Amino acid sequence: MVAINQISKKLTLEAFLKLPETKPAREYVQGKIEPKLMPQGEHSTLQIRLGTAINEVVLPKKIAHAFTELRCTFGGYSIVPDIAVFSWNRIPRTEKGRIANKFEVYPDWVIEILSPEQSANRVIKKILFCLQQGTELGWLIDPEDESVVIFQQNQLPDIKSDQEILPVLESIQDWQLSVVELFSWLKIDV
Q1: Largest CA distance in the chain
Q2: What structural domains and CATH numbers belong to the chain?
Q3: Mean of the per-residue pLDDT values for the chain?
């Protein structure tokens, strides 16, 4: 940990992007390297189920695309949101029309899932940075509390729980998800 902090004081974003990828990923935030935590069971389950549920609605209609653990580099940061959703027309593409490997643009919707040892404020700072860059919607999912903090541009944060319906991008009109349904994905019937 000391070595990363010493390196990060001297490292530019360009130099950081030349470093080899690691597992778990590292992020470049405010000029410093911050390691992400390795996802545990609840985190991993919510990430995969939520990304899949969003894509089942948005991909067939070419509305958007949800990506898990995708490096997004913009505004001097290089972050790896748990889920980054990009509107269809904003997905970076190659000259051949394929999805690009490098995403140098902010996501339209950023979703973070709080891990037990993770600092909520550190994650909130990343979501707020995304909103300042143009992201429309941010979710901070708290499995411990079974709540979701909602961040939207020019609005105070809101906390959703129980049967409340979670807001989604305006372009996604055919899908609703309640907080209780989201957390029901963590229960396994024996």
Answers
A1: 52
A2: 2-184 (3.90.1570.10)
A3: 90
